[in-house]
């Protein structure tokens, strides 16, 4: 097993062959074990093969086989849906809430592309369907699979269910050899009411709204149930394509319609933000009579070459935005304010409300953000709600925007009781009794209990297993709370998760025999945990739950340090907040001094570090696989842009350089390889000269990366 070529060194061809061989070996091993009751290889060998298979799949998601052993638990297909990695990630959209946001969206795009405000710039505008997104893969015109969005990277394989949706074509003509069509599955109002009536008659569960009904219907393990539920599909986007569908968004959608997909009749091309807002109003007027739920209007840059130049932020495209309809509002009573302690110790006030329906969903809790919000001022000390504070017993306005947690917008002072008292924010942690301190510049008070505070520990564990982090199936918030208080099978820190199975084997009372558990759920849990022993570096960094380090930073750090060993060594070397390692960390674009400090200090705190080391001992951490930039002249180079760039904006220059494997830094040091200086460059150009760093003009840079400069 130790003779494997490291995954990062595999060619695509080798990877494909290896996945085929592993599928065969694992399949044979499964049959020998489960069907023949005569295992040939040891459990440890079996696990090693499975881990290797997953590691290769993670590095080459496009090569994952339809019969991938990762999708099987034991000898049988898992009871949940199998997982499929999207070859092109499924993203969400940024939001605009008013006309000003729309104008800003347009201005941002023009600035990025260098297009004058007065010049024509076309967008498409279309309803934002309130359903769930689905990606349909066609190969040579035949529907191969249908995958839900999942976490955007990996979704659920719901092919059999999607095949029952009448307006999803099974075959398409004149399509590219590989074509992924994306769109929204939804249920019409009429069908939703009929379905709920039927559910009521047979005593079944009622759905809160058409969106939940559509999601519940598509995610049925029995496709016959899905078939009995009236679902529909609108196509509006695409994933992988072996050739482009067209050169504009509107023509691409027209082509989808020609191929037999249903597309939304209200889509229109609009020049500039005024026209977009006018079409928004038209759609808003029709909203009530459309017969299906929409929650806004989506705007997309029409020209696909411009979309391509604009590219993406971490989870949203720069070339599109969702202009949301105003949120629905409801009035109810605030019964109590409770304090929750988060994983970084933040004390968050939560409103307990008399239950009320907002936008089809019953709401009984809402966030109150922080102490300032309750008092009636913003982070800069300026009044919000004209300075009205929020008190227990008050009548409040609750609203929901999209899927987000309900919020409280305002309070009705005319209904306030005479003896009502302002809310006093606690100064000690309600969970561990340690002082809660609000530091200068921090918007929240934090428990100072650190590792002794049980609330923080539980929240850190919940974060650790959450989506985007380790995402362990069968180990959600409920289970974490159970194991955290479980004397026989304790999970107090992340490493305990990976010793759970061994400890259970040694225990007298097994997990499978406990209330709420069974043979299958226990086996599945252990399998799901084992599957995550192989983990990509960015997810591990994110999962550690260090303050200020979100998933974007996790990816940024992983990309910069490439391996766990290099990352941990760099954090150690930077512990004194000075020297080369410290400077390198701070020079990463996207890492500020506050984040650098918390990061380095967490690694330097002995207990935290010991817990991290205990965890890492159980893991096979996946190095970051570089995108193939080997033929790029600037791969691995550290580049600084300074001065005015004339052929592209700064943001675009940075994106392009990074796509080619370069690292873009904000400051010049002796580690810098290239400084690209435009007119007006000042101190950075000077420093480059002093340090003897290669200096070039924008044109020279473009020539180097093989772009025509004319
Ligand atoms: S475009 C790269 N167009 O909204 C972005 N999304 O909030 C591709 N949605 O995940 C999405 N109607 O599920 C697009 N006309 C529409 C849409 C739409 C609904 C959903 C979609 C997406 C979510 C983002």
Parts with pLDDT < 50 across at least 5 consecutive residues: 73-78
Number of self-contained structural domains: 5
Strand content: 15-25%
Number of strands: 26
User: What does the radius of gyration come to?
Assistant: 27 Å
Name the CATH architecture of the largest domain.
2-Layer Sandwich
Please report the first level of CATH classification, the CATH class of the largest domain.
Alpha Beta
Under CATH, the homologous superfamily of the largest domain reads: DNA ligase/mRNA capping enzyme
Q: If strands are numbered along the chain, what order do they take across the biggest sheet?
A: 4-13-12-5-11
Specify the overall morphology.
globular
Distance between the first and last residues' Cα = 54 Å
The major beta sheet can be summarized as: 5 strands, mixed
Mean pLDDT: 90
- Work out the helicity level: 25-40%
* Count of DSSP-assigned helices: 25
Label the structural class.
alpha+beta
Output the CATH topology of the largest domain. D-amino Acid Aminotransferase, Chain A, domain 1
Q: Name the ligand types.
A: 2-(butylsulfanyl)adenosine
Describe the structure.
The protein is of the alpha+beta class and 710 residues long. The chain folds into five domains: 2-72 and 328-415, Beta Barrel (OB fold (Dihydrolipoamide Acetyltransferase, E2P)), CATH 2.40.50; 122-324, DNA ligase/mRNA capping enzyme (D-amino Acid Aminotransferase, Chain A, domain 1, 2-Layer Sandwich), CATH 3.30.470.30; 452-532, DNA polymerase, domain 1; 536-622, 5' to 3' exonuclease, C-terminal subdomain (DNA polymerase, domain 1, Orthogonal Bundle), CATH 1.10.150.20; 638-708, BRCT domain (Rossmann fold, 3-Layer(aba) Sandwich). The chain contains 25 helices and 26 strands. The strands form eight sheets. A five-stranded mixed sheet has the order 4-13-12-5-11. The longest helix is centred in the first third of the chain and has 24 residues, at 12-35. It starts with 11 loop residues before the first helix and ends in a 6-residue tail after the last helix. The relative contact order is 0.07. Residues 91-93, 126, 128-129, 133, 184, 236-237, 298, 317, 320, 322 line the site of 2-(butylsulfanyl)adenosine.
